[in-house]
Amino acid sequence: MSGTDMSWFAWWSEADWIIRSVFIILVLLSLASWTMMIQKVFQFKNISKFERLVRQYLLGSNSPRTLVLHHPVHVPSVHLAEELPDHAELSELNEFAGQILREKKLDLESGLTLLATIGNSAPFIGLFGTVWGIMHALQALGGVEQISMDMIAGPVAEALVATAVGLMAAIPAVIGYNFLLRKLRRLNALIDGNAVRIVNHWGRGD
């Protein structure tokens, strides 16, 4: 077994339950953020593909009433076409469409709050672990008459692992949040454009 592996095992064996808990929490938060990012990327990609198909379908002078026959109903524009009432004024259609789209957009935003929370809180959780580790190390050295740098450097370096893990959890979450937010804005613009076409067609009785 290499010396690096031994140092990692030594760090874990010498850490108290609070440092271990901080480390486990940060690892779980990192896994949760990566899982959410991958899930949202595939979700946005899938819906964007179908929304573009819906746009081409509507631009081809096809009736929005037949959208559900050719496209998946989980697509926001298709769901809108399925839920719109047959007999209503244009103002009522716009209000009804706005309500449906707000609900669908909230569904698309789910998970982004988790990424933002992890990105904001993970560094502080790691910092807490570091402060606790340093305090624990200094208390252990309190009864030592002659303190050398080696005696201080080891425990402090072990405590700083918590900060490093906190940053490793936070940085991808922040980058992923900003990336997904930009993707969501583009997707919402596409959805809004399709919604306008659907309502206009519906209002004319197409």
Automatic annotation (TrEMBL):
<feature type="transmembrane region" description="Helical">
    <location>
        <begin position="159"/>
        <end position="180"/>
    </location>
</feature>
<keyword id="KW-0812">Transmembrane</keyword>
<dbReference type="GO" id="GO:0005886">
    <property type="term" value="C:plasma membrane"/>
</dbReference>
<keyword id="KW-0472">Membrane</keyword>
<feature type="domain" description="MotA/TolQ/ExbB proton channel">
    <location>
        <begin position="86"/>
        <end position="189"/>
    </location>
</feature>
<keyword id="KW-0997">Cell inner membrane</keyword>
<keyword id="KW-1133">Transmembrane helix</keyword>
<keyword id="KW-1003">Cell membrane</keyword>
<dbReference type="Pfam" id="PF01618">
    <property type="entry name" value="MotA_ExbB"/>
</dbReference>
<comment type="subunit">
    <text>The accessory proteins ExbB and ExbD seem to form a complex with TonB.</text>
</comment>
<feature type="transmembrane region" description="Helical">
    <location>
        <begin position="17"/>
        <end position="38"/>
    </location>
</feature>
<feature type="transmembrane region" description="Helical">
    <location>
        <begin position="112"/>
        <end position="139"/>
    </location>
</feature>
<dbReference type="InterPro" id="IPR002898">
    <property type="entry name" value="MotA_ExbB_proton_chnl"/>
</dbReference>
<comment type="function">
    <text>Involved in the TonB-dependent energy-dependent transport of various receptor-bound substrates. Protects ExbD from proteolytic degradation and functionally stabilizes TonB.</text>
</comment>
<keyword id="KW-0653">Protein transport</keyword>
<keyword id="KW-0813">Transport</keyword>
<dbReference type="InterPro" id="IPR050790">
    <property type="entry name" value="ExbB/TolQ_transport"/>
</dbReference>
<dbReference type="GO" id="GO:0017038">
    <property type="term" value="P:protein import"/>
</dbReference>
<protein>
    <recommendedName>
        <fullName>Biopolymer transport protein ExbB</fullName>
    </recommendedName>
</protein>
<comment type="similarity">
    <text>Belongs to the exbB/tolQ family.</text>
</comment>
